[in-house]
Design brief:
With about 120 residues, this protein is an alpha/beta fold. It has a single domain, classed as Metallo-beta-lactamase, Chain A. Helices cover about 35% and strands about 15% of the residues. A four-stranded parallel sheet has the order 1-2-3-4, with helices on one face. Helix 4 packs parallel to helix 5. The chain is globular. About 25% of the residues are buried.
Length: about 120
């Protein structure tokens, strides 16, 4: 079984996408919605860092990863590290579900909500 994990990257370099391929269980950060971040409560300097190549993965970056790199090997896709101020679990779920549907992929999709414990994953 191959487990993949990607958080706090700011972007998804090709090398990371390559190593995440064929993961049976994949946990990706889906930290923020760009529109919510832009109008959110953080100071501009923090917003710039979050959006930078040294920041966090956005819903849009995750959607692009799903559309271009996710394969049918992935049985469970967990999206986590959601910002409490600049994202919403339902936005994450809808964005990912649309990308998955566009590819015809049907992994178990789990959105790990802030301040909530997820169910255990058994392999």
């Amino acid at each position: 079984m191959k487990v993949g994990l990607a958080t706090d990257l700011g972007y998804m370099p090709e090398s990371i996408c390559h190593h995440l391929r064929s993961s049976h269980f994949l946990l990706l950060e889906s930290n923020h919605d760009l529109d919510m971040l832009k109008v959110g409560p953080y100071p501009w300097s923090v917003k710039q860092r979050v959006m930078s190549r040294r920041g966090h993965l956005s819903n849009e970056v995750v959607s692009t990863f799903i559309q271009e790199h996710l394969d049918s090997t992935t049985a469970t896709l967990v999206l986590g590290h959601l910002s409490e101020h600049n994202n919403h679990p339902e936005i994450v779920r809808i964005t990912a579900a649309q990308a998955l549907e566009g590819r015809g992929l049907r992994p178990q999709l789990v959105v790990a909500e802030p301040r909530s414990q997820s169910d255990p994953f058994l392999f």
